[in-house]
Amino acid sequence: MARAHAAELASHPEWGVEVVGFLSERPGVRLDNVDGGPVLGSIDDLARILGERVVDEVHFAVSRRTLERLDGPLGLCDEQGIGVRIVLNQLHRLNSQLYLDRVGGVPVLTLASSPQDPVSLILKRAMDVAVSLVALLISAPLFILPSAFVIRLTSSGPVVFRQKRVGRNGRLFTLYKLRTMKADAERLKESLEARNEVDGPAFKMKNDPRVTGVGRILRKLSIDELPQLWNVLRGDMSLVGPRPPLPAEVAKYERWQRRRLSMRPGITCIWQVSGRSDVGFNRWMEMDLEYIDNWSLGWI
Fold first, then answer.
1. Which residues lie closer than 8 Å to 225 by C-beta, 6 or more apart?
2. Integer Cα distance of 221 and 273 in angstroms
3. How many degrees, rounded to 5, is the angle at CA 221 between CA 274 and CA 294?
4. Cβ 37 vs Cβ 63: under 8 Å
5. Fewer CB near the last or first residue (10 Å), C or N of the chain?
6. Are the C-beta atoms of residues 38 and 21 closer than 8 Å to each other?
7. What secondary structure does DSSP assign to the chain, as a single string?
8. Cα(219)–Cα(225) distance, rounded to whole angstroms?
């Protein structure tokens, strides 16, 4: 493991890391030099070496069994203010980011597949609340109430469509939209499954016969989505994030696709913003994961 770590450091001179030397995991065992520097001794010699040489950081690239014996060496470095990095080679294939936290004063290594920076997440939530509140106050009299009146006038059924959706980490919530379909749309969906245009556990039709004439206009202008601003205010959703799926769709997800649930769902998602609304189901899932993995305040 140490050789692989040394090779990685050597291949990136721009990192500015100069290797002083190596220590053997096995006390009392002398090894020949390895590529990248000399073997200065074993872990038991660490105290002496730190006293004789200028060392800014100690990298522990050891086997799992040796991790249990690092209390002393870690304490030596901590006592002298020398930085420490522990190479966890067995975790290199994970998608998750690694964070060191403390729980009750005990250091805890945290693996998280979604953004964890508290300041950025607080700012994102503050933006969600501020924008959705202002947008609701403006859109309610201008768009929502007039649209609700037209829906009531032109078709039977409730004005607001309510549907159970899956939110962050599998939490169920009620999503609100202005109704754009016939009142019995959910029942009619079964007869249209054969005409589904999505190659995965979702349903889409460009010319869905269940959509009313008024509904087509509301969808084209995205007015039907405005009640979801209430979901954003409640904390069920965000302005931007992966679209919230139906429970029946999630039940058919492959395991890797469930990771898209690790972030709060949004009114709009990255593939809609980029104008790529006709992507296949797997690519849709991949783009959601790319959004999660690369999210910053610049992504909203």
1. 177, 267
2. 15
3. 25
4. no
5. N
6. yes
7. -HHHHHHHHHT-GGG------EEESSTT-----BTTB-EEEEGGGHHHHHHHS--SEEEE---HHHHTT-HHHHHHHHHHT-EEEE--GGGTT-SSEEEEEEETTEEEEEEESS---HHHHHHHHHHHHHHHHHHHHHHIIIIIHHHHHHHHHHSSS-SEEEEEEE-GGG-EEEEEEE--B-TTHHHHHHHHGGG---SSSS---TT-TTB-HHHHHHHHTTGGGTTHHHHHHHTS-EEESSPPPPHHHHTT--GGGGGGGGS--EEE-HHHHTT-TT--HHHHHHHHHHHHHH--GGG-
8. 8
Q: Determine contact, residues 182/188, Cβ cutoff 8 Å.
A: yes
Label the pairing between strands 172-178 and 238-240. Answer: unpaired
Write the pLDDT tens digit of every residue in 149-197. 999 999 999 999 999 999 999 999 999 999 999 999 988 888 898 898 8
Q: Give the residue-averaged pLDDT of 29-53.
A: 78
Q: Is the torsion defined by CA of 59, 63, 69, 71 positive or negative?
A: positive
C-alpha pair distances (Å), 7 with each of 4, 15, 36, 68, 282: 5, 13, 7, 25, 36
Burial class (CB in 10 A: 0-12, 13-18, 19+), 147: buried
Between CA 1 and CA 8 the distance in angstroms is 11
pLDDT of residue 56: 93
Kindly list the distances between the CA atom of residue 84 and the CA atoms of 60, 121, 253, 266, in Å, as whole numbers in the listed order.
8, 29, 41, 39
